[in-house]
Amino acid sequence: MNVSLIFSEQQYRQLAQHLFPDDGCEAVALVLCGRAAGKDQHRLLARRLELIPYIECRVRTPDRVTWSTNRLLPLLAEAEKKKLALVKIHGHKGYAQFSEVDDESDRELFPRIHCWLDDGLPHASAILMDDGRCFGRVVNEHGGFTPLTRVSVIGDDIRIFDASADYPSAVPEFGRRVAQTFGQGTYDSLSKLRVGVVGCSGTGSPVIEQLARNCVGSLVLVDPDHIEVKNLNRIYNSTALDAANKTPKVQVAERAIAAIGLGTRVETHTKTLFDRVVVSALSTCDILIGCMDSVDGRFALNKLASFYMIPYFDLGVRIDADGKGSVDQVCGSVHYIKPGGSSLLSRSLFSMEQVRAAGLRRTDPEQYKKLLEEGYIRGVQEDRPAVIQLNTLIASIAINELLARLHPYRIDPNGDFGIVRVSLSHGIFDHEADGVACPVIGRHVGRGDVEPMLDMPELSQGTTS
User: Fold this and answer.
1) Mean pLDDT, contiguous 10-residue spans, the chain (465 residues)
2) Which residue in 137, 139, 141, 138 sits closest to 115, CA to CA?
3) Which of 98, 101, 106, 117 minimizes the C-alpha distance to 144?
4) How many CB atoms lie under 10 A from the CB of residue 193?
5) What integer pLDDT is reported at residue 365 of this predicted model?
6) What is the predicted pLDDT for the residue at 382?
7) CA 131 to CA 147: how far, in whole Å?
8) Which is it for the CA torsion 408, 412, 415, 416, positive or negative?
């Protein structure tokens, strides 16, 4: 099983500051991690840092640190109660491998951790380099070592340290121009990414097309609906026959990607986001892209991204008709959401009242209608019309935002582009930075697998959408 480790950029900065102090001596920290336990992979999600004070280390030299395990005991108790993982991390300067002293230390520490927790789950040791790179290994109950497949740092930039990065594969001819534009490192990262796209219609369709043609490794596509005649002018590769046969939208995308033939693997779910199987599949993605109109769906995906520390791109389009055969406004936006940053909720895209109303409309339409008539809730706006050229523009902005964060190429820092807005009717192309951390969604960063999933009763065990 592949095991990886994920940090937020804020956590990574705190670790770097602690592990590389001014005195030049080694330091150590412990990290409590949530878990995302997939079928073929297991992700450790940094939940809380425990920075071991320098004064509590019995030995601190430029190449060795010996520390008291007193702070380990309450962490083990918490890990046992909440089924969390424990990661030990220390810093190295210019020495990009575990030393013999590290081997001896890990073989002494981790069998004891496994004995205490007795969970049969992975726990890890990691090294942060002074140049910013990070790597690590799982240490089993017998003191055996298995390299971490990947360490990721999710922030304004998306930094991915793959264990195989030192051995890049040959770039195939169809990927050569992607590598020429963004570098082989970015091409290699794209080819290993697992991207979840929720909503495969208006903006989702051109997003999927561009991801496949940029040689993304695998896609998880989620949409419960089938092709209708009204979809034919805005869903790429859809046909009148698909409308007649009521072909699921995810199948149209899967068929097109197979025909393109660039090797992108596809997993499809003809279900809503509010399904345990879907949440489980999305929880093991490296990137999430939301192409939904529904308020409750966007809130749930934002929440999922926080639980599992996944960078999230939210796409929205809007065309307001004036009722006289013309339009008042044609606009769209791309929101980038990072773990521990602001959210769609704190950016005021919607309120919790709207989230509750949308959820009630989805789960109990009759009660929703009754409360709406009685004035107890505000109505949820119907979908607005959108056209393929606007959808494609917003999709292209989103894919370029993804590429910019994997391979920072623009003059201004990525932190200035938390939101990108476009108004074709008013000739506006604008952007703004991320806002303050969201107190509602931010508290879930790194929690990972819990019951019920995402703290949502409708995702309890035994439920289906």
Assistant:
1) 95 97 94 94 96 92 88 94 96 94 95 95 97 97 96 97 73 63 73 96 95 95 96 94 97 97 96 96 97 92 98 89 66 95 94 84 75 57 65 95 92 95 88 93 96 93 64
2) 141
3) 106
4) 22
5) 78
6) 47
7) 20
8) negative
CA distance 191 to 412: 26
What are the C-alpha distances in Å from 47 to residues 35, 54, 282, 325, 345? 10, 22, 19, 53, 22
Give, in order, the Cα–Cα distances in Å from 241 to each of 229, 235, 255, 270, 429. 9, 13, 14, 19, 38
Question: What does DSSP say about strands 312-321 and 158-162: parallel, antiparallel, or unpaired?
Answer: unpaired
What domains can you pick out in the chain, each with its CATH number?
2-154 (3.40.140.10), 173-459 (3.40.50.720)
Residue whose tokens read 């107190």: 439
Contact predicate 43/280, CB 8 Å = no
Q: What is the pTM of this model?
A: 0.92
Q: How many residues does the chain have?
A: 465
Pair of tokens at residue 382:
């119907």
Between CA 365 and CA 372, with CA 367 as vertex, the angle to 5 degrees is: 95
pLDDT on residue 425: 81
Check if the beta carbon of residue 197 is closer than 8 Å to that of residue 220.
yes
Cα gap 90→435, rounded to integer Å? 31
pLDDT of amino acid 70: 86
Are residues 92 and 126 in contact, defined by beta-carbon separation less than 8 angstroms? no
Residues 6+ positions from 172 with CB-CB distance below 8 Å = none
* Contact predicate 190/213, CB 8 Å: no
Region of residue 10 (left: phi > 0; alpha: psi -120 to 50; beta: else)? alpha
Question: Contact 148/137 with Cβ under 8 angstroms?
Answer: yes
Return the axis-axis angle of helices 352-363 and 365-374, rounded to nearest 10°: 130
Q: Is 86 helix (H, G, I), strand (E, B) or coil?
A: strand
Apex 224 CA angle, 219 and 230, nearest 5: 105
